[in-house]
Design goal:
13 strands; 60s Ribosomal Protein L30, Chain: A; 11 helices; about 35% helix; homodimer; alpha+beta
Amino acid sequence: MTSPHSESDPDAPLDGEAAIIEAYLAPLAAGYPGAFGLKDDCAAFTPAPGQDLVVKTDPVASDIHFLRDDPPGDIAWKALAVNVSDLAAKGAVPRAYLMALSFPEAPTRRWMAAFASGLAEAQAAFGMSLIGGDTDRRPGPVTISITVIGEVPQGSMVRRGTTKPGDVLFVTGTLGRSALGLALLRNPALAARWSIDEAAAAAARQGYRRPQPRLAMRDVLRRYASAAMDLSDGLAKDLGRMCRAGGTGATVSIEAIPRDPVASAAVKADPARWQDVLASGDDYEILVAVDAGKAAAFEAAAMLAGREATEPFGISRIGAIDATGVVRFLDGNGRPVTFARTGWDHF
Amino acid sequence: MTSPHSESDPDAPLDGEAAIIEAYLAPLAAGYPGAFGLKDDCAAFTPAPGQDLVVKTDPVASDIHFLRDDPPGDIAWKALAVNVSDLAAKGAVPRAYLMALSFPEAPTRRWMAAFASGLAEAQAAFGMSLIGGDTDRRPGPVTISITVIGEVPQGSMVRRGTTKPGDVLFVTGTLGRSALGLALLRNPALAARWSIDEAAAAAARQGYRRPQPRLAMRDVLRRYASAAMDLSDGLAKDLGRMCRAGGTGATVSIEAIPRDPVASAAVKADPARWQDVLASGDDYEILVAVDAGKAAAFEAAAMLAGREATEPFGISRIGAIDATGVVRFLDGNGRPVTFARTGWDHF
């Protein structure tokens, strides 16, 4: 077995699971005593008294959730961020995660070092620690299967299915940046067609590669939200899920949908790009339903939380929950808009 | 979307993630309120006061951990059992699990129904509930990534790295049955070469497909064990890990290794089959180190626990922990035995 600290070729493949764990993963677990340095079969997680654990597992795979040539640090960030985004939407504090890595062929030391470094950044940003996992080789895409553990005071997890007719609908940040960033990664020539500069294109690509879970929304959600969920498969599809879970419907004004300059430019140059804003995945913003009587207070509190966040974000009122059982998107003239597809289905 | 309760073709592929979750997975979560019927983004797990959670993730993949033509119910059983086996070795009570399923192509209703049925059997046998997960399609083998959550009184998780020189080494059940079962599945003609009848061959195949986590050992381990771990990658390799984690060594008498009639017959016909007994994976028995002064009491308690278990098992004294820093296997004449390979490396 090659010592990871030797002078040997950083582009040589890593030899064996133990080399990966000891050199690159164990340091990520050093902060949590119950991880036992990743040297035991299991981790021991000690919950704080009076807390519920909020748990979630959402694997990401190469060429589906990230591009195989994405920087390894960004791949790591995204793999953890997409899971933490769910915790954020539930009002939970991230605490720990387990990670199962699967490679079709052994990664190089260079790749693994960059991956571990991105993971270190992400877990520090989100306030959590690696506590266990598994590494193996099998055919198919590189896959990173993360299970996150967060905490909320008992019984206070913000639910998805608890919308009520009359609730006002809000969304954090802007939509479509990630989908447009992916489009730019696949076809850089689009930047010229949309008349955006390199800085804007870079921001969109960053949106795809390094989503920012809206953890700053935690207290605001727990205090005001009727219901919330993170947007991973596109607003159209995810709002449909929220309404189905609650037995409600919704009306959204597409002119109220928050877009950043890239999305505005793309839609202006090519109106079909609305699809990317409303019905594409990977936004990782939070969709929130708030009782109408609390909407103003929520909006003010969310605006403040977003402004003070490490990665600032805004809050937008986009529509309302109703009892119709269907989700409608209306254009500036109040006419219903339909889409060729309603969002990303992983299946 | 095809209704799963329609009269349509059970061999048609299932259409969409929602169809799989609603028809086949949600019923497995019905017993746990915090699973919210698998309709939320996360599950809420309420720990019992004063307990640590013991957590573990260990994915299984087709053609690596099971055979693609194995009965789907057995695949499901094994996917959960290999994770629960770790909980058993740690003295933990299984409580809940999350499961991410990944398919290269949509499963049929027939396959999915049988899979869910095996999972229902397994979770009932182990006393736990599905509380969350994810289903997607991607290239590569069918993969089942399970994360299990168990509980132990705070601070009482049985560790791997806490062996002490002088500890007596025990193992539950018998070793090699699963590896020999796999050999028989790959080459049924071996049964004749080993002179075993169909009932014995079937038991070995069952050992590979339906491992039995030794949950009955829980109280005995927590009361007596210095250290314990489950055997998933072969005794030689896993004992090496246990000793490395504890900074100890060990000596094992191979004549003391417990073998069932199939292993005895296979080794008698072909001594190279010792490899399957000592250095092949998938045993899912528990390796236990016990202070010499407690060894007799442990042995009696473990024997009783094994006899009264739903799937009875024995307990065998196989050697001792020492301070040498190396693991040695001795034959009947006290001579060291070496192996061509020391166990299954997933990497």
